[in-house]
Structures are given as C-alpha cells and as structure tokens.
Design brief:
Layout: H1 5-10, E1 22-24, E2 31-37, E3 40-46, H2 57-70, E4 76-80, E5 83-87, E6 92-93, H3 96-101, H4 103-120, H5 130-143, H6 152-166, E7 172-174, E8 183-185, E9 190-192, E10 199-201, H7 203-213, H8 218-229, H9 235-262, H10 269-290
Antiparallel strand pairs: 1-2, 2-3, 3-5, 4-5, 6-8, 7-10, 8-9
Helix pairs in contact: 2-4, 4-8, 5-6, 5-9, 6-9, 7-9, 9-10
C-alpha cells in the first residue's frame, strides 16, 4: 500500500482532529500543503535532505526557529525529519514588482534578519559560502558529463574572478534564496519564509540575490545599498554587489543544471537553465565593464 504525502500529514499526532491537507504551489525542492485544524491554519512542508544543494532539514529547522525568535518568520509548530509545520500567514505573496515597489520595507526586513537571526541561532548550522557551492556544482557537472560540460571551465574561471573581486567580507546567517514569493505582506507587516538554503554567508550575497531575483535596475540597486548600509554606495561597493549579482545568477544556473540530472519534480529545468544563463551573461558583461 502506497502512503501518500497527504496520508502522512493526516497521520500526524500534532492535529486536534481529522484534517484534509490541500496542495499548495511554489515549491521546487519540497511539497507544500495547507492544513486547517479547527480555527487554525498551517503550512506543512515535506522534503528530504538534498546534500548536493546544501539543503539539510536539521539546518532548516534551526534557521526557522531562529527566524521565529527574531520575529521575521512565522512560528514553527512541529518538526520531524522531512516534515515541518509552520503557521499559515494570511496575506499577499509578493511578486518581483511588489519587491521593487516596497524596497525600503524589504531591505529593512533582510537587514533585520541578518542581524537578529544570526543572534538567535542555536546548535549546529551550515555555511552557504557561495563560491564553495559553485565549485561543488561545477565538479558534479563535470564528473557527470552534463550536456554543457564544455562551458564549465570558463564558468569556473568566472567564479574565481568574482571571489577574488569580492575580497574579505562580513559574515551573517543569510537566507540565500530571496525570491519574491518568499515575502508575504499580511497588511500590517512583512514576513520572510522558507529557510531551506539558510547558512552563513556574506550579506552581499543576499543583496545580490535580491537584486537578481527581482530584476532591480541600476537606480534600484543604488537605493538598496543605501538603505542597507545607511550611506551612499561608492564604486568599490557597487562592483562588489555586481560580483554577487553575477554569482547569484551563476549559482541559480548551476543549481538548475544539476537539477536537470537529478530532480524528480515536474519542472522544466532546461528552460530555467537557459533563462538564468542568459541573465548571467548580461550581468557578467555589466560587471566586466564596471571592474575595468
């Protein structure tokens, strides 16, 4: 007899009575369900560890608890390996246009998360050093002879140049996946959800990730840096941010290339790879012009 995800959720002792899990969209490393239990509503996220992508569920739990304590994410109510239950936030899930329109609020939330989640984190937790992640992906893709293997040596050289140009950096516990759908406005405040990729990293990666995922133009990037650092950016900071925008797009491209080989989720990874490589090349050209 096959036990479905919904069956597993129904069987949890956490509920006060019978429940009927309803699938939610949005996850491409996990499956999400909405559950009503009496007057309360919850999101149940199911997903196994994915070591290749730096996704380990013990780390997600630690990050979610710290984010809850920091007041930036909804409460975690239940956890077991491969399954997490959090409060459902009734509100508007952001689009990229929303992120751009509400940039001061978004950047303030990210800045608060960097400061407070780092302080509230307890127990073992992962790093998410961008360039380690890139090197690991490149190695896997070369070993497995991905269809774009011939491009990998050049991409490795680009990654090395980006890391060199970034230089020494502050370390925070970052979110590392600032897609627009991970911001929810409940009408009173913003929430930041989904800590699958949480880990210690430079804050500039989250800023580069925020800019790349939400298609910030040059003026919006300037405003983001000014909001975050409480000062007008200089040329050195602009170049470092652009390096991390490129690194973010390269990471997303390589993530998709690896997922082409391994993922069982119904998603067009080849098209996602192509779209991200196009944006990577465009951002790289801008970086090279700035870094001269």
């Amino acid at each position: 007899m096959t036990i479905t995800a919904a069956d597993r959720i129904r069987a949890l002792a956490f509920w006060s009575g019978p429940v009927d899990p309803q699938p939610l969209g949005g996850g491409i490393t996990n499956s999400n369900f909405l559950v009503e239990d009496g007057p309360r509503r919850y999101v149940v996220r199911l997903g196994d560890d994915i070591p290749l992508h730096n996704v380990m569920r013990f780390n997600e739990r630690a990050a979610a608890l710290a984010a809850e304590a920091a007041g930036v994410s909804p409460a975690l109510r239940y956890f077991e390996p491969g399954l997490i239950v959090i409060d459902f936030i009734e509100g508007h899930t952001f689009t990229a246009a929303d992120v751009r329109a509400e940039m001061p609020r978004v950047v303030e939330l990210v800045k608060t998360a960097h400061r407070e989640v780092t302080r509230h984190l307890r127990g073992p937790a992962l790093s998410f050093w961008t360039f380690h992640v890139l090197r690991n992906y490149l190695s896997v893709l070369a070993t497995r002879r991905h269809r774009l293997t011939a491009e990998l040596p050049r991409l490795a050289r680009v990654a090395e140049r980006l890391e060199s140009r970034l230089g020494p950096s502050q370390t925070v516990f970052g979110h590392n996946d600032l897609l627009p759908g991970n911001f929810i406005d409940d009408g009173k405040r913003l929430w930041l959800i989904d800590w699958d990729y949480g880990g210690f990293n430079t804050p500039l990666f989250d800023l580069g990730n925020l800019a790349s995922n939400n298609e910030f133009d040059r003026g919006e990037r300037e405003a983001m840096l000014a909001f975050y650092f409480d000062r007008q950016p200089d040329d050195a900071l602009r170049v470092r941010l652009q390096a991390m925008i490129v690194a973010s797009l390269l990471r997303e491209s390589l993530w998709s290339m690896v997922s082409e080989l391994d993922s069982t989720i119904a998603f067009d990874y080849r098209a996602y790879t192509a779209a991200n490589l196009f944006r990577f090349e465009r951002a790289l050209a801008e970086f090279e012009a700035m870094a001269l």
